[in-house]
Amino acid sequence: MTFKNDFLWGGATAANQLEGAYNIEGKGLSVADAMPGGKERLNILASPGFDWTIDEKKYVYPNHFGIDHYHHFKEDIALFAEMGFKAYRFSIAWSRIFPQGDELTPNEAGLNFYDQLIDECLKYKIEPVITISHYEMPLHLAKVYGGWKNRDLIEFYVRYAQVLLERYQDKVKYWMTFNEINSATFFAGLSQGLVPSNGGDDKTNIFQAWHNQFVASAKTVNYGHQLNKDLQIGCMSIYSTTYSFDANPVNQIATQQSIQEFNYFCNDVQVRGAYPAFTERLHKKHGVKAELLKITDEDLSIIKSGTVDYIGFSYYMSTVESKTGEGVEASGNMVLGGVKNPFLKESEWGWAVDPDGLRYALNDLYGRYQVPLFIVENGLGAIDTVDNEGLINDDYRIDYLRRHIKAMNNAVEDGVELLGYTPWGCIDLVSASTGEMSKRYGFIYVDLDDEGNGTGARMKKKSFDWYKEVIASNGEKL
Ligand code: BG6
């Protein structure tokens, strides 16, 4: 194996999906707190009547309780340390720091929680890797300001980011500005606070929101670099390796366009510092009223100066594109869509398992951008069961991760510069797309069901000891 000695092995989570404690010690409501649990989650968010009202008589809100990490973080981090984590990627809940989002001073109680969390990581020499905004923004900003389409959010976000960077600059080196920024293609409610009732069904708003996020991100990068030149601030997007269904040039062109739109658009702006040449084509495709977009020359120069230091990305699956639609079967994947790949198996949620696609992703991103890469999410969401002896034999997860780590090693041998690997949901948590607890990713099982019933006890799965060995051998023992 060829991983560097300081390779950052670890795991990843997001505040809104595990902390719970959604309304204590001054925390405000976030968009995630207004999202019902269950497989219908994305459809509910996309329905015309959805206006962020929380109706506890009608729905369960699993993000309210998460896995109560807020009160169990010491126990959880001790387990991560036992696995030998070198890094832990987590996010800060914006609404814990600025409960409404538009205040001028932060909530000290919220910061105190992260002081303790960061110190707990450092106690075990675990490098904290922080996502400043992971599918979470104060609900007030979505309801009253209309989400990221409103330019005021740039100022609010930058104020929030500055508080974090100033406070933690000597303890935290690696940062990411927005989680999966390209996910607004299908997740604008979560990532931009945009749903149909506040303009999410008009793509002009989505592109305006992206632009505002790009400016906010670039300002944050510039601020961080001026504050402390050692800080490494990255972008973060989903990479979906996309194959053409067949050699028909019509399908090949459709595939190329879909790659440009999904895998390159946001990265191009954040890594290269400029909108790509195909932007106008995207606007036309989506009926964006480009003349209404507020993009100033000053914005463009901020974007140009505030390019990121590395690319963080998530990789779960590949997709297949077919424009002609001949001989295809729809994929079971409700998030990225596309058609079924006859050469690959899908997870229970229809996500095509494709380790070679990760090697492809790493080579593609490194070839295009030539900045260090960090795989900050990867993993298999599956139903786990506890057997009569209290064991959780998640061999399927070990198999998935083993194959992806091998592919990652191949890419490093291909010449890719890779900083680390933090598989998703290292401890079971609430799923983002379906709000389920039963879609589990962890090395650590948490005894809670979709309704939040259970003891909340933490149990090691078989993959726990397996991953411990992987880390101890720096990827040799798979
Ligand atoms: C990524 C997100 O999309 O994938 C995480 O950054 C999310 O927040 C993860 O949880 C897995 O998706 P899901 O829908 O299975 O939770």
Write up this protein:
With 478 residues, this protein is of the alpha/beta class. It has a domain at 8-241 and 373-472: TIM Barrel, CATH 3.20.20.80. Helix content is 40%, strand content 12%. The chain has 16 helices and twelve strands. The protein has helices at residues 15-18, 41-46, 62-65, 69-83, 94-97, 108-123, 139-143, 152-168, 184-192, 203-227, 249-272, 279-286, 297-305, 355-369, 395-414, 462-472, and strands at residues 8-12, 87-91, 127-133, 174-178, 232-238, 241-244, 310-314, 318-321, 373-377, 418-421, 444-446, 458-460. The protein has an eight-stranded parallel barrel, surrounded by four helices. The protein has a two-stranded parallel sheet with strand order 6-8. Helix 15 links the parallel strand 9 (373-377) and strand 10 (418-421). Helix 8 (152-168) packs parallel to helix 10 and helix 10 (203-227) packs across helix 13 (297-305). The protein is globular, with a radius of gyration of 21 Å. The protein starts with 7 loop residues before the first strand and ends in a 6-residue tail after the last helix. 53% of the residues are buried. The structure holds 6-O-phosphono-beta-D-glucopyranose. 6-O-phosphono-beta-D-glucopyranose is lined by residues 14, 17, 135, 179-180, 314, 377, 381, 424, 431-434, 439. It comes from Lactococcus taiwanensis. This is Glycoside hydrolase family 1 protein. It holds the Pfam family Glyco_hydro_1. Belongs to the glycosyl hydrolase 1 family. One of its GO terms (biological process) is carbohydrate catabolic process.
